[in-house]
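Try this one yourself first.
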């Protein structure tokens, strides 16, 4: 299998967890793999060096049109680096932006999409971005939302939470594997074994179990406490914050929860995320 395997999700949905599992599975270290070296296997498509290789001008001179136009060629270059499949993290929706696709299908071999209850994403996203919960909800509800280009990342068209989820999972595709964050919590060995099967990897049950343990939330948090984590933002005290399901009940007001459900009911119903009484 050649081409890019996308590790796609709306932010704060478990993408890093999946990446950590894959690193531990492939490397099979005696102790948990260094979380600050995950880009050696699962690079971030939006990392600025991928784009400066396509346009050597200072990034401050790029327009959003420039970034959109560069993206297909950037992805082809990422794919061409490897003879076999290459893993790329992304938070983008599958869209046409300014006349260019966010995902270059000609170099795409498949995708893994991680979905999480948006009610639980709110507080995690707010913490990650340094926002109030109200502002995080506003961001999640904004159709065609796009991040700006910065000194480390090219701009990414996230879209709204519903737009992001629907764009990846709205149509069945044999090259798409969907993982639920809540299922990953409830039965990680079963869910990650399913991922291994989708990727057609030859791994023993013992190796999978070891990778699951080395990528567990408690282990990842301990590694961050010991070594730091370079993906933590300046707004965060820690990247691996909670790792739970259902914490929205203690973190959101009733009005905030209703606002999220009202904006995303259709996609939430697909994944059984609408709480009783809503």
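Now uncover the answer:
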């Amino acid at each position: 299998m050649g081409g890019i395997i996308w590790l796609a999700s709306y932010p704060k949905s478990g993408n890093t967890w999946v990446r950590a599992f894959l690193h531990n599975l492939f490397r099979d270290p005696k102790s948990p793999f260094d979380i600050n070296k995950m880009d050696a296997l699962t690079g971030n498509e939006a990392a600025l060096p991928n784009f400066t290789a396509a346009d050597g001008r200072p990034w401050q001179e790029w327009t959003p049109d420039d970034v959109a136009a560069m993206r297909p060629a950037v992805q082809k270059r990422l794919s061409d680096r490897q003879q076999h499949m290459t893993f790329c993290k992304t938070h983008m929706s599958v869209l046409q932006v300014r006349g260019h696709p966010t995902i270059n299908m000609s170099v795409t071999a498949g995708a893994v999409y991680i979905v999480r209850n948006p009610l639980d994403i709110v507080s995690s996203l707010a913490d990650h971005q340094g926002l109030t919960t109200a502002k995080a909800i506003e961001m999640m509800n904004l159709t065609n939302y796009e991040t700006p280009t910065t000194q480390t990342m090219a701009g990414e068209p996230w879209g709204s939470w519903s737009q992001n989820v629907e764009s990846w999972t709205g149509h069945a595709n044999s090259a798409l594997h969907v993982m639920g964050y809540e299922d990953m919590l409830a039965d990680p060995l079963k869910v990650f074994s399913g991922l291994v099967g989708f990727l057609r990897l030859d791994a023993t049950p013992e190796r999978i179990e070891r990778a699951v343990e080395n990528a567990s939330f408690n282990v990842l948090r301990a590694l961050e406490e010991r070594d730091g984590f370079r993906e933590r933002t300046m707004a965060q005290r820690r990247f691996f914050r909670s790792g739970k399901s259902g914490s929205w009940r203690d973190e959101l007001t009733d009005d905030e929860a209703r606002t999220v459900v009202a904006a995303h009911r259709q996609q939430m119903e697909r994944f059984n995320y609408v709480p009783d009484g809503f």
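Discussion: The CA atoms of residues 193 and 204 lie 10 Å apart. The first strand starts at residue 3 and ends at 9.
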